[in-house]
């Protein structure tokens, strides 16, 4: 594992970029992971750019811990900020081997070749890519490349890690493993992660900040923002189903019993949460054949149009279905129905 | 198919515009009073003299236009051999005239040219005589021995029993003159007529006749002349008293 | 026939063939003119060998100068922004459109004895005119834009994303340049250098105007060809084909090396 303890610093940022109509202030606590949610052009990239120093704007202020990075007379260049970047594309230097890529940060900090290689191996092991050390980036799969990119960013031992859609370019098969890896490395780090997948946000972030038109429109603990969104954007993309209970014999036991994909850290008898998207819920009038593991009889409370779909609310659960399905099933408030969710669509993680 | 139609349309359009231009009443028709054209190919060094002779010849022969093509003699010979429409050829040396053989009708020598030392007006290297050209530190520029002016320079060098080391052996007299005019060179060997034509941009220093090289300029009308009589008239004009007077003015010697 | 690749419209072959004929026919005609029986003798004559040697030496020196000066220029043009940058870019590219003779006159006006820097150079004991240095200067002047444009294009294509990542890893601007930017654009730098070399090898007008013409000192192969044309057209043709062959070899070898990168 890492030789040194993780440096965790608080980040204070006031981004005022008139040209992009961005004006927002944010404080990130030491060790906290903040997810930025918001539509395209809402200011996520601008905020990350201001923190990283790739965007220079004299009226913005950034401080990491006690150290002011920008100010009326201060400008700390990007390479002296100690702020790591992980983008959607791995952007591994194509002319360097995997080992040299990961060792790039330590070398830049003045480490000798052997020491840098040693650190690089440690981090490659941390992301499970030890056997890729000698390869060139062109010989890696997308998932492998992103793991190596993460190792490279971490090897530079940044005080703050900025992640811009780190999972967006990965395919469905490699995404869970990378998500899990990020969950582990972000646990005790100060990090800001721009993300569009709310489930990723739920699993990775302590806090969610929703941006719209360059302003903060919502800011709160992840579960709260995602289950009871107040802003228009969050309501559209979030509205997750969250079920609380205890972890027992491989299922979540609470008001309802929920089977799903379990994440690391679940303890027998410990508190746990199940999360799934409304769109993953299938609605039936009667329980379907084959007795699926997650089938819950409910009573429909309300039908709310959402885009070209209809949100079916039943107690603390909701489902997204097509208007045709509503008509075929003859759904109406007060009608009985059965909500069915495949176990593969449910994420179970410790509380 | 459509491509062919496009091509046809283009041709028609081009023809149309040409015809329109021809029938445009504002464009004067070809002047019938100037039907005779004479094309003279002449060595570059003859340009100032021949330009003047050309206009006086036109005055003396109303209804005649003289066109000149000036270039190095060997270039002109090559062009004539390739079928260029020349009526008269005036060469800077006999060697190039001989290359034309029977195509040149009765060549006659009409002028000579000798070398002179050209120096910048302020004469930075204080060159006063031929011996100075061999002095170390004097930046001398000559023509390459492969071209006529360079061959002439080599004759002078040998005749004066000197051994000079030019810093550059140029392609043509104009190149040598350019280097002297710009002050890059302290001295250059060019023809008397070039020094004269350069006006006050260079100073000329005479070379003793005993060691100087003389180029003889022959002129001839050509076999394929459009108007043999007119071509002969030009040759006669240049070799005659009026032509010789003008050539003297420009520094050429008597043949 | 490979599936899935959109076909080139058939009519495009016609102008393409026209262009190929325009370029290849004169070259073929030149080769046809070569007196092959005397070829070996003509291209191995003393003056030819000296001229070729001088050409190769000066073109290599010019290419090195182009790389040393042109790389930072391309970086400034591609990676910075300030008032007057578009104007500067246009000025840098000017030698591409300038007649070489004009380039020669401009160089004379700068480095000549009575030029802008002439006095300074004379005091420093440097004589540029009529020296091999003048040949290298002339070649560099006309070849530099080839390297700069080709490298600037490569830099723009490569973008700044890798550089941003490198900086976030703590790399100083110098380290980013040497370890990331330049390795990434190496193919562009290489092809730019090959173009510059080819241009330097063929340089004529600026050289004859600025440097003069003296065997072994300033008379490069193109100047030798021009001179031989006066006395021995066969030799001129043979030397032209020799120059062409050298250029073709350089370009082919460079391409092969590049694909092997």
Automatic annotation (TrEMBL), chain A:
GO function term, MF aspect, one: ATP binding
Stretches assigned to the ABC transporter domain: 6-238
InterPro entries per the UniProt record, alphabetical: AAA+_ATPase (IPR003593), ABC_SmlMolc_Importer (IPR050093), ABC_transporter-like_ATP-bd (IPR003439), ABC_transporter-like_CS (IPR017871), Mo/tungstate-bd_C_term_dom (IPR008995), Mop_domain (IPR004606), P-loop_NTPase (IPR027417), Transp-assoc_OB_typ1 (IPR005116)
Stretches assigned to the Mop domain: 289-350
A UniProt-annotated Pfam family: TOBE
Keyword list, A-Z: ATP-binding, Molybdenum, Nucleotide-binding, Transport
Domain of life: Bacteria
SUPFAM superfamilies: MOP-like, P-loop containing nucleoside triphosphate hydrolases
Protein name according to UniProt: Molybdenum ABC transporter ATP-binding protein
Organism phylogeny: Bacteria, Bacillati, Actinomycetota, Actinomycetes, Propionibacteriales
Automatic annotation (TrEMBL), chain B:
Keyword set includes Metal-binding: yes
Signal peptide span: 1-20
Entries under Pfam families matching the protein: SBP_bac_11 (PF13531)
Keywords: Metal-binding, Signal
PROSITE patterns (UniProt xref): PROKAR_LIPOPROTEIN
Family: Belongs to the bacterial solute-binding protein ModA family.
Protein name: Molybdate-binding protein
Gene designation per UniProt: modA
Automatic annotation (TrEMBL), chain C:
PANTHER family documented for this protein: SULFATE TRANSPORT SYSTEM PERMEASE PROTEIN, SULFATE TRANSPORT SYSTEM PERMEASE PROTEIN CYST
Protein family according to the UniProt entry: Belongs to the binding-protein-dependent transport system permease family. CysTW subfamily.
Subunit-structure text: The complex is composed of two ATP-binding proteins (CysA), two transmembrane proteins (CysT and CysW) and a solute-binding protein (CysP).
Protein name as catalogued: Molybdenum transport system permease
Pfam families according to UniProt: BPD_transp_1
ABC transmembrane type-1 domain sequence ranges: 52-254
Main localization category: membrane
InterPro entries: MetI-like (IPR000515), MetI-like_sf (IPR035906), ModB_ABC (IPR011867), NifC_ABC_porter (IPR006469), Sulph_transpt2 (IPR005667)
The entry's keywords: Cell membrane, Membrane, Molybdenum, Sulfate transport, Transmembrane, Transmembrane helix, Transport
Superkingdom in the source lineage: Bacteria
Membrane topology classification: Multi-pass membrane protein
Biological source species: Nocardioides phosphati
Location within or outside the cell: Cell membrane; Membrane
General function of this protein: Part of the ABC transporter complex CysAWTP (TC 3.A.1.6.1) involved in sulfate/thiosulfate import. Probably responsible for the translocation of the substrate across the membrane. Part of the binding-protein-dependent transport system for molybdenum; probably responsible for the translocation of the substrate across the membrane.
Regions that span the bilayer: 12-32, 52-78, 90-109, 129-155, 176-198, 235-254
